[in-house]
Amino acid sequence: MIHLLKIEFSKVRNYGTFWTILLIYIGLVPLAFFGLSSFSIPFFPEKSELFGFPTVWNYITWTASWLNLLLGVLIVTITCNEITYRTQRQNIIDGLSRKQMILSKFYFFTALAGFVTLYTFLIGIIFGLIYSESNDFYSGLHYVGVYFVQTLGYFSFAFLFAVLVKRSALAIIFYILIFMFKFIFVLTLGEEISQYMPINVIADLTPFPFFTAIFEIAAEQDPNFVAPVIISQTVRSLVALGWITSFITLGYFVVKRRDL
């Protein structure tokens, strides 16, 4: 595994776009997180309630999840460049099997998702300690693990999409549009069934922090209000892991059958 990771890292070591996008992500997460506090949020009016434990875990992962699209674009670009410049063929010539080539990609995605999750976790700790005590540190911490699964889901889907489309610009456009228009699944399949669709289930892993408060207010204002049926976080995570496995497996079979 270490050998395959070294091969993947050597491909991006001198790739300026990789480091530029990664640095943009590193800078935008705390800025976007703190910037959202400038909006008037009636459910949690005080910064200490937004940035403090345990609310901070849901709030920071939900904020960072929007930037996963940026990292997904990076994965699309890297993968399409390898196809365009025949890097995959060179890997095969150098002795890697197609299975090892796909595994190296999965290891790289996992390592990058781990780094991103760790960084987001540290940002949450910093804000949490500044705006609250550490008494509720562990409450809500599961959102960090869920965020890791979500990030890996974005990466694996981006990889599969890049493998299928092959052209970087076109793949990036369609990749972004699919996530932007995921509500189409809701309109065509309904609220309950659409939650199991790959794009929806991955994007919804880090839910909007104030859904419960919104539903409570809606129920108070309208006695006939019925909250939508939302699958549990455990079920959502398991379904997402199933889709991630499917993305990587399908990507393997596409590469296996393709003439590199």
Describe the structure.
The protein has one domain. The protein has 14 helices and no strands.
What's this model, at a glance?
The chain has 260 residues and is mostly helical. The chain has 14 helices and no strands.
Helix content: over 70%
Overall structural class, as computed from helix and strand content, comes to mainly alpha
Q: Give the overall shape.
A: globular
Largest sheet: none
- Per DSSP E runs of 2 or more residues, the count of β-strands stands at 0
Q: How large, in whole angstroms, is the Cα Rg?
A: 20 Å
Sequence-ordered SSE layout with sheet pairings:
Elements: H1 2-12, H2 16-35, H3 47-51, H4 55-66, H5 68-84, H6 87-93, H7 98-131, H8 142-165, H9 168-180, H10 183-189, H11 191-194, H12 198-203, H13 211-221, H14 233-257
Helix pairs in contact: 1-7, 2-5, 4-7, 4-8, 5-8, 5-9, 7-8, 7-14, 8-9, 8-14
Keywords:
260 residues, 0% strand, mainly alpha, globular, single chain, 14 helices
